[in-house]
Specification:
The protein has 14 helices and 23 strands. With about 500 residues, it is an alpha/beta fold.
């Protein structure tokens, strides 16, 4: 008989103990700072998102805010109370789905508070609900709204809803975070809302405030800018001259993660579908970045953090109670840029105002109408910005110039092989005057249009641009067996 030692006589407890030990070691390695911290060498992890646009709910493409929080905790070891982490946003936080738009961004604000954001740039669409609402959101947020390049046009002062920069002390590092807002804002929100504001060149703002932040004790400088990749790269030489180590961007929804030496740029696409990570070691004695790494990670659909999910579900319940009424049905997505979307908008608007002959819109401010039941909330998601319908008069020649200036949705007019004709088949008369419906933001210069020059005396129809859409969809009586797309076919 062979004598077996107790170790081999009962193998499973030993293996279990070993497995537990190995798992513990792996967990420690994954969560332990990737560089050894000392009294002067400090580690910092920046979690970054931009252009969230209120997409807090899980979708087929994203885990939403709750999924993002779970990713941060599981993949990055994030804890809101851990001083190794800084959470930043590049702006455009709330204009998007009805769960955010209906509440003027208050719901998104609460979600971002719960996730532990430390600061956010002001984006162009953060103005969409008006200056007073922006002030309210700034008062409710547990983090500052940053922009160094916005000025009151009368006083030349930074407005009361913004701060040019903030200094955050965490893990022994004094971090200056400077905000920038896209200079496209006057043509990429409701122009009338920001008519009294000036948006200075980015270089001027950085040259003014980076030295101020340094003088106030900032050791590490970061820019959170609602600016595109080409603008970020153009600022790199100045940033390095001013001692700025990171430029984080937004606005163009790009995926950018690049580091060279002690400098990095990052932009994390949009809609909480992706997030950026900047991981660095900073020498507080030498006031310099010792090492820096950047990466982008996806936020896939799936389980989410229960605390954030509870906040989101509370807002969903409130939305459904107010805007859950079903008014129609579509079997397929009606995409924002499609001919079907053009027919939906213009058919509804022209039906609401029989005195008008032509209707015009820009796809820039429209989102896809998803397949399934169409509710009041669906229409709000499709048209998330506030607009009133205006009536103007244009000659045929002016109308063609407006339509061909940028890609446009239009109805009451048909493009032919050699020109245009009216919906009744008659040719467009370039000298005749036509009555045209359009949203006020385009009339006032949105999306770079200059339509006011043709008719400075536009008439307000009294209609919110969404209401005729709601009325028209409801009137069609679309169902699963006779979906809305059947009513949006081209006219023979």
């Amino acid at each position: 008989m062979k004598i077996r030692t107790p170790l081999f006589r009962k193998p499973w407890p030993w293996l279990l103990t070993a497995a537990v030990a190995v798992s513990a070691i792996v967990a420690i390695i994954l969560l332990w700072p990737r560089s050894t911290e000392t009294e002067t060498l400090r580690r910092l992890v920046i979690l970054y998102t931009n252009d969230e646009h209120g997409w807090m709910e899980s979708t087929s493409k994203s885990g939403g805010a709750a999924g993002m929080m779970r990713q941060w905790m599981r993949q990055e070891g994030y804890n809101p109370n851990d001083e190794h982490y800084l959470v930043l946003s590049g702006g455009d936080r709330w204009t998007g789905p009805a769960i955010s738009t209906y509440f003027d961004g208050q719901s998104t604000n609460e979600v971002m508070n719960a996730m532990g954001y430390d600061a956010a740039a002001i984006g162009n669409h953060d103005f969409d609900f008006g200056l007073e609402t922006l002030r309210q959101r700034a008062a409710e947020a547990q983090f500052p709204f940053l922009s160094a390049n916005i000025r009151d046009g009368k006083t030349d002062q930074i407005p009361d809803f913004a701060r040019p920069y903030i200094i955050i002390e965490t893990n022994g590092i004094r971090i200056g975070v400077i905000g920038l807002t896209t200079t496209e804002t006057p043509v990429d929100t409701q122009p009338a809302t920001v008519a009294g504001l000036d948006f200075l060149p980015y270089k001027d703002a950085l040259q003014e405030f980076a030295p101020q932040a340094k003088a106030e004790g900032a050791e590490l400088l970061i820019v959170v800018g609602h600016i595109c990749g080409n603008e970020m790269r153009a600022l790199e030489p100045l940033a390095q001259e001013l001692g700025i180590s990171i430029i984080a961007g937004g606005h163009c929804h790009e995926g950018i993660a690049s580091a060279s030496g002690d400098f990095a740029i990052i932009q994390a696409k949009s809609f909480w579908q992706t997030y950026g990570v900047v991981e660095l070691t900073f020498d507080t004695a030498a006031d310099r970045v010792v090492s820096i790494e950047v990466r982008l990670r996806d936020n896939p659909p799936g389980l989410g953090d229960p605390q954030i999910a509870e906040v989101v579900s509370g807002w969903r319940a409130r939305l459904d109670a107010d805007l859950g009424q079903v008014i129609g049905y579509t079997n397929n997505n009606i995409t924002w840029s499609s001919d079907a979307m053009a027919r939906l908008l213009t058919s509804a608007w022209l039906a609401a105002d029989p005195s008008a002959q032509i209707a015009f819109a820009s796809p820039r401010y429209i989102q896809t109408l998803p397949a399934g039941d169409i509710t009041l909330a669906s229409v709000l998601t499709m048209l998330p910005t506030d607009n009133r319908l205006l009536r103007i008069e244009l000659t045929g020649a002016q109308l063609v110039e407006v339509i061909e200036f940028r890609t446009a949705h239009f109805g009451g007019l048909i493009r032919t092989g050699d020109g245009y004709q009216l919906a009744d088949g008659s040719p467009l008369d370039y000298e005749a005057i036509y009555r045209v419906l359009l949203p006020e933001n385009l009339y006032n210069g949105g999306n770079y249009y200059n339509i006011r020059q043709y008719d400075p005396d536009a008439e307000d129809t009294g209609d919110d641009w969404r209401q005729p859409i709601v009325d028209w969809i409801a009137a069609q009586g679309s169902t699963r067996d006779n979906p809305l797309e059947n009513f949006l076919q081209p006219q023979p």
